Amino acid sequence: GLAVGIMGVGDRKQVIKGDAYYQSYICHLPRGVIELLLDGSFESFDGFLFPSICDCVRNLSGMFQLAGKGKFARYLDFPQNFDPSIGGVFYRRQIEKFVEDMFRVNGARITTEKLNHAIGLYNKNRRLMEEIYDIRQDYPWRLTAEDLYHILRSGLVIPVEEHNRVLEEIAQYLREDSGEALDNIRVVVSGAFCEQPPVGLIKSVEMAGCYIVDDDFMLGLRWIKGDIDETSDDPLGAIVAAYLGQSVFSSAVYDVGNPKGKLLVELVRKRKAEGVIFCAASFCDPALLDRPELQKACDGAGVHHINFQFHENTGQFKVIREQAGTFSDSIKLWV
User: Fold this and answer.
1) What span, in angstroms and rounded, lies between the C-alpha atoms of 5 and 220?
2) Cα–Cα distance between 335 and 279 in angstroms, integer?
3) Distance between CA atoms of residues 261 and 294, nearest Å
4) Which of 57, 165, 271, 302 is most buried when burial is the number of CB atoms within 10 A of its CB?
5) CATH 3.40.50.11900 placement within the chain
6) Geometric angle at alpha carbon 5, from 310 and 221, rounded to 5°
7) Which residue ranges in the chain fall short of pLDDT 50?
8) Chain segment 247-287, per-residue pLDDT in tens
């Protein structure tokens, strides 16, 4: 089987029937996913797994269950308690339920050897992505943020082995000197971890004079920082431990002991960025509720920032480009 990531319909499909399933004051992503469900785009899928990002996604899992599509539709509730004896036990049981779902679909039992092998493949995948980001930190002109986005997003629809080969070729290409640096500022984009911005928006930000040196686009691909133990006698336990201790910061996670504002400032310093662009989907409660605290942390650290919102099907980028361009010019002229 192949695990496929579904990120909505973007600006490629008009949502008509999906609007009838949701109230007006939510983000666009679940409407698009329902539209795909209703027009038969998921007929070849065996099952569906929904992460606990927000209430809208929780409700989306219920709609799939009511529609009877696939052999299972499970809401995977990630723990918000990071105590191994509480959140760890809970998360392991969630994973074990999902393992049973997959067994009912294909009759295959997950073995320690197979799971360790898969962990190793994804360890390599994350290492390669991090290497590419590290190279772009110093040489962002060698690969545009738009191209990087397409490269990473391809990993949602192809086997991890194939994606690793692609990433290896890209990393090798980036190690060689190419292109010429422009007089752009370096920014970190924060807030687009769920509903994805249109590619035109990413391109507009860079064309306005901002090199995007880090972001939270498709954050799930880079969720675990560092390697997971791939030699463990208990690979499920290794996955749980990695989630509890190696998760990236996100508005989808409540962790009062590890302030996200502090982590965002640390990321800005690491990437040698000159500012932050808060870029969240309209009506995205997790991102928009976190934004004041993140902005406060940036203000306290002297990190400049701007913010705007988008829909995945936003078609006009002139205002965003002007805003990003003004931000870039102000930093170059007065900072």
Assistant:
1) 10
2) 22
3) 5
4) 271
5) 112-334
6) 80
7) none
8) 999 998 887 777 899 999 999 999 999 999 999 999 999 99
